[in-house]
Amino acid sequence: MNTFVVRRGRGRGLQGRLVRWHLLVLCTMTALLVVVQTWQFYREARGRIGERAITISRLVAQLPVVYQGAQAGRQNPALNAQVNALRDKAEADFIVVGNVQGIRLAHPVPSSLGQPMVGGDNAAPLAGREIISVARGSLGLSVRGKVPVWAGGRAGTRVVGVVSTGYLMPQAWHLVAQALVSLLPWFLLALGLGTAGAVWAARRLRAEILNLEPEEIAALAQQQRAVLAALREGVIAVNGAGQVTLASERATELLGPLRAPAPLATVWPELAAVTAGGLPARQQNLELTLHGQPVLVNLEPLESRGGAGPDGLHGGFVSGFRDRAEALALADELTHARGFVDVLRAQTHEYQNRLHVLSGLLQLGRSEEALRVLNAEIHADTQFRQLLRDVQVPRLVALLAGKRERAQELGIDFQVAEGSCLSALWERHADTLVTAVGNLTENAFEALAGQPGEVTVLIGEDPEGMQVEVEDSGPGVPPELSQTLFAQGVSSKGEGRGYGLAGVCARVQALGGQLRHTRRPGRTVFQLSLPAPGVPRGPA
């Protein structure tokens, strides 16, 4: 279906949802990337600050005033002033000089002079090793570069003190912030391109699914399942690669169990051979066999969007198929019903004509002549019914009575041969007999082509079965059709005909009987024979 009563509001559709989901994922990934980059930038910033701090500490430890003051182990105002001057030039947050006991000899805060160094990271430099550490001192959390102070300023001698240069952590985070700000335009560009790509992809996807919302697609799928389940004929869908992608329940009953996708050449080789190379146009009522049984097949081609698909493959096709016997039985029922309609119409017409005649005679005061006409009709009807007294299949009798009225309307002399008989045993085959006799007599009427003529029906039975002969005085079957007269679609009456006799023949053969035609002098005769119920059937 192409129209739905309920439509999703704008922004709630597939496009809006895809864009929102994409933006959520993109923002989440961006946030995760920012966290990872922040941690990486922090580590890099801390490493660079640590290298800078330890370099400054090395230079300070080589100053004579520093190693001499550390070796003396006492506070020296000149030492503190010079170290603080160097701190200002190095833009460090602090430079601290301590003696071998860890007592501060130089510090940016005068009140902290003479106090022990804090942070717990003096063990390595006092042991003669340089380190970079992150510790919390009296000024706060900082990155420190610590080196030992050697006696006389010569490495490898005696350690007489320690120099600690530090940068507080806000400086490291300031560097991280600068790096992130420099990347902000790229993050915004990625977000913008991602949003534009999400909108484009959502629009493209919606166009590919025929502008349908997921809820509409789900509704279509449910309707499709319901339609396939309701169909009495089998339906399969085959893609351009020759794979059965969809099969209705009725199709699986006729084809046997299958799991889509399945190769059509395996499931139904004859149909695969017929459709090999693509299906250029629609085909209807194609006669094929399925597991040895004749079926009627309708084929509807499906073109892929934009013409042929990859590798030159077309869009495949949909096939609907049904048992040929069921289709013919349905056609017979329709023909039977149409025949009864014609009979009723003919009877109505004839009775109206007779009533008009009787009414006119009575109005003219010619009652005796009206009585003679009425007696004649009653006598003719009685004679006809007398001929059918031994035919004990009521529906067949009713059909012949109706055909008599139809023949009178057409100006045809319709007779039932004297001695016709049929026992009630044949009531079980009444449908087949009514269909066969009705079709044969109607064909006989049409063979006279509106000209006066005679049609005679003979019905009889014997211990082996029953026989029906329908004889007409028409021109007979054209010679070119005599050999294929009972094939489907063969008729001398134009296109769209030729199904009645084929259906009758199929039903008769299904009961083990035969349908033949012959030509006698001036007469065309159709002969139908059925074996008696319980008598073994011969080959059809």
UniProtKB/TrEMBL annotation:
EC number: 2.7.13.3
Sorted UniProt keywords: ATP-binding, Cell membrane, Kinase, Membrane, Nucleotide-binding, Transferase, Transmembrane, Transmembrane helix
Membrane-spanning parts: 21-42
InterPro entries linked to this entry: 2C_sensor_his_kinase, HATPase_C_sf, HATPase_dom, His_kinase_dom, PAS, sCache_3, Sensor-like_sf, Sig_transdc_His_kin-like_C
GO molecular function: ATP binding
Main location, first listed in the record: membrane
Reactions mediated catalytically: ATP + protein L-histidine = ADP + protein N-phospho-L-histidine
Entry keyword Transmembrane: yes
SMART domains named in the record: HATPase_c (SM00387), PAS (SM00091)
Annotated Histidine kinase domain residues: 346-534
Compartment(s) where it occurs, according to its Swiss-Prot or TrEMBL record: Cell membrane
Membrane topology: Multi-pass membrane protein
Keyword Transferase appears in the UniProt entry: yes
PROSITE patterns attached to this UniProt entry: HIS_KIN
Protein name: histidine kinase
Native source species: Deinococcus navajonensis
